């Protein structure tokens, strides 16, 4: 390889992809949100963690030189306050990662608890809309464009991967990101989402415990189950860091011509069936 080409590649690898960008991450205290907050900060971003887990969120924010704010995404005023913090701190908002979400009740459509469904939608759907609304306002006023990213799920693509209410909420996100991208593109604002599959978060581990009836199930057990049954890449399941890297891509100018896109991180699971792979042998 020529020296100039090698130097160019090394600069791409070593550069900070979000230098001086300002980001708000909901659900940023743990899991995918926390992994993304760390990666954003490592890449030069000023990060605000918005969550209801005050101790975890405040500790993480301090460790990355960011800010923490208590934020229940179901409450529009809380989201508005998180955006206002970004504007008062750095005078701009460049990245909004609407990541906060909760799981749904596992069970039959015939015994849905509608109060639980309403609560889930208030977090998973209204929370996303609140984030889009107030991020869009700030970005349009700022006049420099921006990137809005939302967390959906493989359950939005393929039936049987989540509860009825959870699936409903995650499919709604894929729909609204497209309409929002249509409106905001003229302002240079890109709107995308990620759909992870099988990341052994606390929420997924709890879901597996409920479905399998195994209270002692651990994150590594879930990872093993996913790698064996839910991925074409056998022996491999997704990690929070895998998802964070995808979010970094969508937040950065590396994806500058990508909008209205749902980036699926599923090891190919929702696109192809490895049970038929014997035909290639």
Automatic annotation (TrEMBL):
Looking up Pfam families in the UniProt record yields: adh_short_C2
Keyword field? Oxidoreductase
Q: Which family does it belong to?
A: Belongs to the short-chain dehydrogenases/reductases (SDR) family.
The protein's GO terms of the molecular function aspect are:
oxidoreductase activity
Q: Does the keyword Oxidoreductase apply?
A: yes
InterPro entries according to UniProt: NAD(P)-bd_dom_sf, SDR_fam
Keyword Oxidoreductase belongs to the record: yes
Native organism is Quillaja saponaria
What's this protein's name? Short-chain dehydrogenase/reductase
């Amino acid at each position: 390889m020529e020296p100039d080409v090698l130097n160019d590649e090394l600069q791409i690898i070593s550069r900070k992809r979000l230098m001086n960008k300002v980001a708000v991450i909901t659900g940023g205290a743990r899991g995918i949100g926390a992994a993304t907050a760390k990666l954003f900060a490592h890449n030069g971003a000023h990060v605000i963690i918005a969550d209801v887990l005050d101790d975890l969120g405040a500790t993480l924010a301090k460790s990355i030189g960011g800010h923490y704010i208590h934020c229940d995404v179901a409450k529009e005023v809380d989201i508005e306050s998180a955006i206002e913090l970004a504007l008062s701190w750095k005078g701009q908002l460049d990245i909004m990662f609407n990541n906060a979400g909760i799981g749904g009740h596992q069970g039959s459509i015939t015994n849905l608890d509608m109060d639980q469904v309403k609560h889930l939608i208030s977090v998973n759907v209204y929370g996303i809309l609140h984030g889009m609304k107030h991020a869009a306002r700030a970005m349009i006023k700022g006049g420099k464009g921006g990137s809005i990213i939302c967390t959906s799920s493989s359950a939005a693509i393929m039936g049987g991967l989540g509860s009825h209410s959870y699936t409903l909420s995650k499919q709604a996100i894929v729909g609204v990101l497209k309409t929002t991208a249509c409106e905001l593109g003229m302002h240079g604002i890109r709107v995308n989402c990620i759909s992870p599959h099988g990341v052994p978060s606390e929420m997924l581990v709890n879901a597996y415990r409920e479905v399998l009836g195994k209270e002692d199930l651990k994150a590594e057990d879930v990872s093993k189950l996913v790698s064996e049954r839910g991925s074409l890449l056998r022996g491999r399941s997704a990690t929070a860091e895998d998802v964070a890297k995808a979010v970094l891509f969508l937040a950065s100018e590396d994806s500058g011509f990508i909008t209205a896109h749902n980036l699926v991180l599923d090891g190919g699971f929702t696109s192809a069936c490895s049970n038929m792979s014997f035909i290639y042998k």
